[in-house]
Amino acid sequence: MRAELINPFLNATINVLRTMCQTVPTPGAPILKPSNQTWGAVTGIISMTSPTINGSLVISFQEKTIISIVNKMFAESNSEVTPEIVDAVGEITNMICGGAKQHLGELGHHITMASPVMIRGQGVVIVQHSKAPTIQIPIATPEGSFVIEANLA
Amino acid sequence: MRAELINPFLNATINVLRTMCQTVPTPGAPILKPSNQTWGAVTGIISMTSPTINGSLVISFQEKTIISIVNKMFAESNSEVTPEIVDAVGEITNMICGGAKQHLGELGHHITMASPVMIRGQGVVIVQHSKAPTIQIPIATPEGSFVIEANLA
Fold first, then answer.
1. Could you tell me if A146 and A46 are in contact, meaning their C-beta atoms sit under 8 angstroms apart?
2. What is the rounded average pLDDT of the residues A7-29?
3. In this complex, which of A46, A113, A119 lies closest to B124 when CB atoms are compared?
4. pLDDT surpasses 90 at B2
5. CB-CB: which of A86, A117, A124 is closest to B45?
6. Residue B1: predicted pLDDT
7. What is the pLDDT of residues B105-123, one digit of tens each?
8. Pairwise CA distance, residues A151 & A65, whole Å
9. Among A99, A122, B57, B83, which is most buried by a count of CB atoms within 10 Å?
10. Cβ separation B117–A56 shorter than 8 A
11. What is the ipTM of this complex?
12. What is the helix, strand, coil percentage profile of chain B, to 5?
């Protein structure tokens, strides 16, 4: 997968987290995803199609990370993952993909985004129906860690 | 969700299973999905978008059902769920959605299908980012049971 395809998602992730969640994300080095399991406790998946690229964006949060981020977003004091927090992961996934969509459009990739699907549980096996490798980028924030994963071909 | 939206998926499911898997599916009565957990051990999800409807199709197989169906399809003798069987669930999901797409087009709904994503494990919590109810239809075959679920709005 070319860097020009992953960068719009990375930039959108940083923008969304900075703007909506008032947190400062620090991306680590991209790796090939070493398994087909969910990395964190709450995971958002969004599928994308276009005449030029197809694939998915995954964003997967440690439990404490997403609780802290959502508490900060909405000035709440949740201590566990609620349905509203799972919904917020869907919204964050949507916003990141929406931001990336605009940049990808400028690169000539006019994607259609599906609605996100959220999955609970770490280590759940999720198999992409794609021969393309999945790139995983770890992201650190003061609230904890999460990853984004892109599978685009 | 209107019956005119669910029927194309049901008809396509029956056609695909009859044609590709040489089995005779008997649908039961549709119900509102009583939980947000995966029904079976191997589940395929496909997202769809169109100017008129958005949503997802889920197909979820009991372990013994999908092993028997794939063994029949490819004249194999698997006794457990292999990566090829998970891939076959993606293909079956794709084919059902492709069949439904054609009928939905005739009804004026010109959908774009994303690539399917497959999930392993029964009882995995999957949350649709949608206010629409999910309709679940149980389907019996000589090989065992499965369900299809449609969430379309």
1. no
2. 94
3. A119
4. no
5. A117
6. 61
7. 999 999 999 999 999 999 9
8. 23
9. B57
10. yes
11. 0.88
12. 35, 30, 35
Instruction: Tokens for A65, please give them.
Output: 């990370």
| Mean pLDDT taken over chain A | 94
CA–CA min distance B103, chain A (Å): 20
How many residues are given for chain A?
153
Q: What would the 3-class secondary structure string for chain A be?
A: CCHHHHHHHHHHHHHHHHHHHCCCCEECCCEECCCCECCCCEEEEEEEECCCCCEEEEEEECHHHHHHHHHHHHCCCCCCCCHHHHHHHHHHHHHHHHHHHHHHHHCCCCCEECCCEEEECCCCEEEECCCCCCEEEEEEECCEEEEEEEEEC
Q: Is there a contact between B125 and A126 if contact means CB atoms under 8 Å apart?
A: no
For the record, the structure tokens of B126 come out as: 């999957």
Q: What is the pTM of this model?
A: 0.92
